[in-house]
């Protein structure tokens, strides 16, 4: 175990033990990810340099070194194909999402199998004022009964659409 020595104000030496440093994997950061990122960065630059050399150096010079590559037509064709594929995949992604989305007048846009109903009614208009707070008010006395405490935060849930419409359009109703 490592230790650190320090001198106190009275001149005595104080030895404080240090814990051993944690491994990088224990704190959630893996050095492998950094290495993979660095290797990937260098590989991308290498591919870009080779692509540029292939595009700019004449075919005769490459053949003199014994390098036989496909036609220069591919220098233009490959980026065009990649960009076209990207646009196609983006369009396909949007089309699939539009296909999977329910119509605007469907109740599935409001309620589904994950709907959590609020267990007690929430008033659309605050009709009663908050109770007065003074030094004698105990705001923690009724913490276990969250639904009835005057300062309770209501549980998370979905408000019925009728209640929302009532609040939005100031209609009396359910």
Automatic annotation (TrEMBL):
PIG-P domain span: 33-169
Record's keyword terms, sorted: Membrane, Transmembrane, Transmembrane helix
UniProt GO BP: GPI anchor biosynthetic process
GO annotation, cellular component aspect: endoplasmic reticulum; membrane
Primary localization: membrane
Protein name according to UniProt: PIG-P domain-containing protein
Subcellular location: Membrane
Residue ranges of the region described as Disordered: 1-26
Membrane disposition: Multi-pass membrane protein
Transmembrane segments: 35-54, 74-96
Stored InterPro entries: GPI_Anchor_Biosynth (IPR052263), PIG-P (IPR013717)
Biased composition range(s): Polar residues: 1-23
């Amino acid at each position: 175990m490592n230790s650190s020595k320090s001198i106190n104000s009275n001149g005595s030496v104080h030895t404080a033990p240090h814990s051993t440093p944690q491994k990088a994997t224990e704190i959630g950061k893996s050095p492998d990810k950094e290495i993979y990122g660095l290797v990937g960065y260098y590989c991308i630059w290498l591919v870009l340099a080779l692509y540029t050399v292939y595009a700019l150096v004449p075919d005769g010079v490459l053949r003199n070194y014994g390098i036989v590559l496909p036609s220069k037509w591919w220098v233009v064709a490959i980026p065009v194909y990649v960009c076209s594929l990207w646009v196609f995949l983006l369009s396909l992604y949007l089309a699939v999402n539009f296909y999977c989305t329910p119509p605007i007048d469907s109740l599935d846009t409001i309620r589904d199998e994950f709907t959590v109903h609020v267990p007690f009614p929430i008033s659309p208009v605050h009709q009663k004022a908050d109770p007065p707070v003074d030094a004698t008010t105990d705001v923690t006395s009724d913490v276990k009964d969250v639904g009835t405490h005057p300062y309770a935060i209501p549980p998370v849930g979905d408000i019925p659409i009728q209640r929302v419409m009532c609040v939005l359009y100031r209609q009396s109703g359910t």
